User: What shape does this take?
Amino acid sequence: MDLDENRARSLRGELYHAFARDLVAARRRCKLACDRFNNAGDVSRRRQVELWREIVMDDRPLPPPPPVPVLNGGKDEEVEEEQADEAQFEDEPWIEGPIRIDYGTNVRVGKNVFINFNCVILDTCSVTIGSRTLIAANVSIFSATHPLDPVLRNGTRGPEFGKEVHIGDDCFIGGGATILPGVTIGNGVTVGAATVVTKDVPPCCVVAGNPARVIRRLEPRARGGKVWPEGE
Assistant: This one.
């Protein structure tokens, strides 16, 4: 098996073999990174961001701690120093563990995103989450799927495939929602709790149900002189 071509096929949404040794190793790397994040305990915001970046393999250097005058080393000064450092990460996504992701390298998350606990992301293909989007607890985002033909599917020896998932800016994904492969959710969408999103959702609406259907349209609003959400 040509491992490079197999991996390329997975990213293109074509049939590929998930149990090729390099992909097994990549999932193990991400699992261990998720374990470190989930088991970190009460850590600083800086450390949380660092652990998240290990999951998604974002190798950008963190900003250095800001200089804070040291007077007498009291508790108030320690708090002030920590708050000044946290301010540097205001735009970073806020992730509550536990979280589970397949590869991490195919996940892109925008600014000021919140992901609550028990989120599962299967990122066989690209999964993007837009800025200021809020994701409630127990949400599943699947870009991976399997052939319907059971003979072709063939357990762990058969091929699988995926389709990209894109969630726009300023969305709210309610608790227990499931987003299936190939779905694009427009800007400003609210997805109701326990909703199963099986196809694309237009911008600026509320969807709910299984399968999801539009139950309300929302009027665009202005953000920073632009028409929201189409202008972003």
User: Anything to note?
Assistant: The mean pLDDT is 93. The radius of gyration is 20 Å.
